[in-house]
Amino acid sequence: MAEQIKNRxxxxxxxxxxxxxxxxxxxxxxxxxxxxxGLEAYSGEWGNSxxxxxxxxxxxxxRLEDISLLKTKTLxxxxxxxxxxxxxxxxxxxxxxxxxxxLAIGDTWINAIYNYGINSGVINSYRKTSLRSWWVGLMLNExxxxxxxxxxxWNNHFATELDEIDEPKSGYVLNNILRTNALGNxxxxxxxxxxxPAMLRxxxxxxNSATAPDENYARELQELFTxxxxxxxxxxxxxxxxxxxxxxxxxxxxxxxPPTTFYDxxxxxxxxxxxxxxxxxxxxxxxxxxxxxEEELDDLLKMIFTQEEVSKHICRKLYRWFIYYVIDxxxxxxxxxxxxxxxxxxxxxxxxxxxxxxxxAHFFEFVNIGCVIKNPIDFMxxxxxxxxxxxxxxxxxxxxxxxxxxxxxxxxSMQLKMTDPPNVAGWPAFWQExxxxxxxxxxxxxxxxAQFSDLLISTNGTTRGGFKLVIxxxxxxxxxTNPSNPNSLIQELVxxxxxxxxxxxxxxxxxxxxxxxxxxxxxxxxxxxxAYKANxxxxxxxxxxxxxxxxxxKYMMSGMSEYQLS
Amino acid sequence: xxxxxFIQKTVPLSFLPFFxxxxxxxxxGRSPFLESLISAATETNNVLVLIQLNGGNDGLxxxxxxxxxxxxxxxxxxxxxxxxxxxxxxxxTGLHPAMTGMKKLYDSGKLSVVQSVGYPNPNFxxxxxxxxxxxxxxxxxYETSGWMGRYLSDQNEFPEYPTGYPNSVMPDPxxxxxxxxxxxxxxxxxxxxxxxxxSPTNFYQFISNTVDPAPNTPAGHELTYIRQVAxxxxxxxxxxxxxxxxxxxxxxxxxxAPDNSLGDQLKIVARLIAGGLKTRIYIVSIxxxxxxxxxxxxxxxxxxxxxxxxxxxxxxxxxxxxxxKLLGAENRVLGMTFSEFGRRIKSNSSGGTDHxxxxxxxxxxxxxxxxxxxxxxxxxxxVSANDNVPMQYDFRSVYASVLKSWFGVPxxxxxxxxxxxxxxxxxxxxxxxxxxxxxxxxxFELFQNYPNPFNPSTKIRFNSSGSNLTLKVYxxxxxEIQTIAEGNYPSGSHEVTFYANGLxxxxxxxxxxxxxxxxxxxxxxVK
Lengths: 566, 527
What we know:
The complex is a heterodimer of chains A (about 575) and B (about 525).
Chain A: H1 48-58, H2 64-71, H3 75-82, H4 120-141, H5 147-157, H6 162-165, H7 168-180, H8 186-195, H9 197-202, H10 216-226, H11 237-246, E1 250-253, E2 260-263, E3 273-274, E4 283-284, H12 292-305, H13 308-322, H14 329-345, H15 350-358, H16 376-386, H17 397-413, H18 445-456, E5 462-464, E6 467-469, H19 473-479, H20 486-497, H21 504-515, H22 523-534, H23 539-559
Antiparallel strand pairs in A: 1-2, 3-4, 5-6
Helix pairs in contact in A: 1-2, 4-7, 4-17, 10-11, 13-14, 14-15, 16-17, 18-23, 20-21, 21-23, 22-23
Chain B: H1 3-10, E1 19-20, E2 23-24, H2 32-38, E3 47-53, E4 63-65, H3 69-76, E5 87-88, E6 93-95, H4 100-107, E7 111-118, H5 126-135, H6 147-152, E8 175-178, E9 194-197, H7 200-208, H8 218-232, H9 237-246, H10 261-274, E10 281-286, H11 305-326, E11 333-339, E12 359-364, E13 371-373, E14 393-394, H12 395-407, H13 411-418, E15 445-446, E16 457-464, E17 468-475, E18 480-488, E19 492-499, E20 506-514, E21 517-525
Parallel strand pairs in B: 3-10, 3-11, 7-13, 7-14, 8-9, 8-10
Antiparallel strand pairs in B: 1-2, 4-6, 5-6, 7-12, 11-12, 15-16, 16-19, 17-18, 17-20, 20-21
Helix pairs in contact in B: 4-11, 9-10, 10-11
């Protein structure tokens, strides 16, 4: 455990000299039309387009059944449904035969001992993979609910790197805190995060003592987690030093399973802590008792949370997560400011904020539809769910986890590694000006997205543990309203797969060159479809429609950029 | 010297300039795997341009059998081209009057007509027939890969594609499809071997770094960005731009856009070929040949829908041929048309024709064996609605001939690509790679059956020069009925008996084939 004391900010700007920032990405914040609509309740049409917009932005599930479900509800009821609390999932388990000999496949490891001396690195590695795969499984299996998207939001906000923490049980505890509090109280969440072993380890809080203060967490708590770096966030370097002293004395007990946090009063700085005028010259009185650490932490959070900027900072982050990255003056005045007030008025409950945002006229404004570039995990999960890709039986744990891992790995290769944002600031696509979402798409990641969707829709798909993952185009086609009509079929797919419409020319191009094999009369597709429906088990008629649907959907995914939008 | 010889004899392996999958080759050392990669592709600079006529082209109004004119006019008087308007190639055979450009090519020795190309047991569905032509399968065989894809991904060509491509051996796309999404004909054993330039607009955007206009919204802003990345990260964007900047079209014969989309597509092909792309196959297409009704103007049958289609085809090919000549690339370009089927002999009462089977196809270019291969289809005096032009040449014989004579594909590879052996046809005169092997035997001959008409059996006599042959019987729809002789028949005269037990009365065709030789005759079963 020989770790050096790190007194540095882990945030470094993206190196724009590399291809990571593609040459066409924003050179400045784009001057695009925005809206003056605010938080007033949306009162317009509630149809497929609005339902899909809400589902795309807030959930991992945009299946036809999900649309039907929300169609039976009003917008308000739909948002309530999305924000309904869910029971917590059963924890991740051992998924692979290997060196983790204490456990059998299917046993959870979240509170299991292991012998540090033997293969601890290998065992850690299995368990980290299990945790990450399991999370993918939760996303895949979630119905119409916001929880996993919010859990990922908090993973991005209170960013830590599991590979650097390298302690899977603490990683699970942290992930569970994010999930449990996903729609809870932000202030309470901040306190729990401050004291969880994963964060103590990641930002060196467990090394912070009166004689050798470590400012790392004290800095990020203010700069990233609460106040942010907005224009009205004027804490000083002295405030960081003072906060670090408040936070001294917390330690990790690695002999419990999972590791636990305890307070060591002998390591705590017991002197008074003086803050700057930004904090109204607050003095946090130094204490000396077994509860001193927690009491002073409460005082610190209370002081920080009196700043309105905290609520604004979080609302801006939510805005960039759910709506768009450009926050102009209208959005600041009509959305962020009133939303932040709701946040404060509810004593930092998250749910009322989301409720107001998703019911707002602003959220459904035309200019806010389709302008998010799907992040890699959104891209992967939606590709699986929208096509109803069959997954292995849950009882086959090794294959199930391996399938989930496949998705985790690919999303990672596309630059979103769940549980491991690149640094404490989170994924640059949510904070790096002026490129933001455009950072997801570059000369490395775009071909990977295209290769993935091409593979998934190829005849043989891809195989994990003997299980074939493949898009069966007929499952989706059979669920559409009128698949025998090529125009209606394509129209419905466009609405289902793309957040924005495409031109009549493009629809005709798709129709003629895929469903119609170059023919000019629609009836040939209708005949082929009807021949298949008349005898659905006949391999020959089935192949005729399958080949054409594959061509269509393959092109709609990798050949048209609209598929990358949310 | 082929590439393998060149590499082994002249360059020390450790200094090869090739990169495979990003690794310098010297890191691998010498291995059979490596050599198979280096020596992968057959050396060729030849290019094949395929023109797909979507919808099923009416072959009988494209290449007209003038010697069958009176029977034809019984069968399709409402659409038949007036005899005096036909552009005569020979006394017996002529082209549709709209095809003046292709007539000029014929006269200058650059056009080959292959008569009655089809396959046994034809399918009349556009989709299935298109799939059969693109996959080169039998009528009852379902394949996922395409014939061009199998050729390009064969072990002798580019089996590892796309891993490690582009590279210095093959810096360019293997195949380019213009005007559509990528053809299933280019689907290889695992990967698709081609890239698509979905429209001429798309091509000009490619070379000018622009993309489709998007709405002025945040979504439009992000869409434009992704489109730019998508376009620029195409593996071959650089190669295509480079080729396009090196050459400009020189022919003045191209039709003015947007009247002739085929011309627009071929214009791009000419530019890319002349710009130096090593791409072997280009596919372009023109639609609208599904002429069920009013395919010609009544009383002026040389005009109308079908005439316009053939005019576009003919003028686009003429301009393209002129262009590649002016661009100095004529010697290495071969063109070929195909359509999923021909149309019925008898026209319908809507002034059109319904789905048929065999039809002529064209090959064009400086190196084609100009002329007409095969005989005119025989039109009976009483054609019924379901009668079809019988097949003389299997379309896979045409593919086999092109692959063998134009791309130098060895027999074992041909067998893999086309699943079995097909006769080689004399359609290409000279090539940079393989000497054409004209296997036509000297003394083959097929005689009229006796008795004729017959019931229930008849004798068929033929002469063999002593090689493998097949003699098969087909009905009027082109359906294969029976194989009556197959195998190696010694030199001399032979006689076989055809038993028509269980067959209905009607006209039947019997067809003798050996190598490039085919001959077909009709016989009548009268019960």
